[in-house]
Write a structure and sequence with these properties.
By secondary structure, the chain is of the alpha/beta class. Helix content is about 35%, strand content about 20%. The chain contains ten helices and eleven strands. Helix 1 links the parallel strand 1 and strand 2. The longest helix is centred in the last third of the chain and has 18 residues. It is globular. The mean pLDDT is about 95.
């Protein structure tokens, strides 16, 4: 029962140094990375933590193409006889009970395509999750039984295209286990990253201000997270230092980019961080 992780990376050395000590305990035979032309120590850090469990792909494309990157990992896993692939990102952790009970969970994917709850942690703690309107029923596809999994739509190349292709099985959803998303654990980082996305898409994709605001504002919800306690069986003994995102925000230069390309109508939240 060979299972691969599929993870995209680009200049993630700081975050990877925090999450890889957690990830290395996941029941994966291979971690298949698509490295989108990193210029930092991303590759070296992956190799240091994972050794020969890591496969690092990089076709050195001239521009970002999300579906291509994800497809390359998936097809590598398929060609190398993996039975399952799990698509997750650098800012995500498995729930503790998913790690502990993986051998019982994974065979269910032979008959059903089960979407997992996305536990979005907030406010400098793994112990609180978002429950504002867009996050109450926030289930997503992560686990792919490869014999039932189709191909990516290669016309989807921009940010936020689907992370998984279609799966030809009946659908179900569960909150009993899932994926912990770290992005909003540091409020300042989250606000700056979302404002960066808005300015980037307005400038580079030529989307209208109205389109960009509609795309992001209902999800960000003016940073009103309506948090509740993270279930104890999800969190277990996992720990994470949210201050790492202060370092990442500086390295990614989100604030600098926003200031250099500033469009006042796009700043509908987070003005206090500019």
């Amino acid at each position: 029962m060979t299972t691969h992780g599929n993870i995209m990376v680009k200049n993630e050395e700081v975050l990877l140094d925090e999450v890889l000590p957690i990830w290395k305990n996941y029941p994966l035979e291979k971690f298949v990375f698509y490295n989108d032309n990193s210029t930092d120590n991303t590759v070296e850090i992956i190799k240091d933590h994972l050794g020969d469990r890591a496969v690092i792909l990089n076709d050195r494309l001239d521009k970002f193409h999300e579906s291509y990157n994800r497809s390359r990992m998936l097809e590598y896993s398929r060609e190398n006889k993996a039975k399952y692939a799990i698509a997750f990102d650098c800012d995500e952790l498995w729930s503790q009970n998913m790690v502990d009970n993986f051998d019982q969970i994974i065979p269910v994917y032979e008959s059903r395509d089960i979407y997992l709850y996305w536990f979005n942690v907030v406010n400098d703690s793994l112990s609180k999750i978002r429950q504002d309107p867009e996050y109450i029923n926030n289930y997503r596809s992560f686990i792919l039984p490869l014999k039932h999994t189709g191909k990516f739509n290669m016309n989807d190349w921009k940010y936020h295209t689907p992370r998984t292709p279609p799966v030809s099985l009946p659908k179900a959803a569960t909150k009993d286990f899932g994926i912990i998303h770290l992005q909003a654990i540091n409020r300042r980082f989250y606000a700056l990253k979302q404002l960066w996305y808005k300015h980037y898409e307005y400038k580079n994709y030529k989307h209208s201000i109205e389109f960009v605001n509609e795309r992001y504002d209902k999800v960000v919800n003016n940073l009103k997270f309506l948090e509740v306690d993270t279930p104890s069986h999800i969190l277990g003994n996992i720990s994470f230092d949210p201050s790492v995102y202060d370092i990442i925000a500086e390295q990614k230069k989100y604030l600098q980019y926003i200031q250099e390309n500033y469009v006042p109508e796009l700043v509908t939240f987070g003005e206090e961080y500019l």
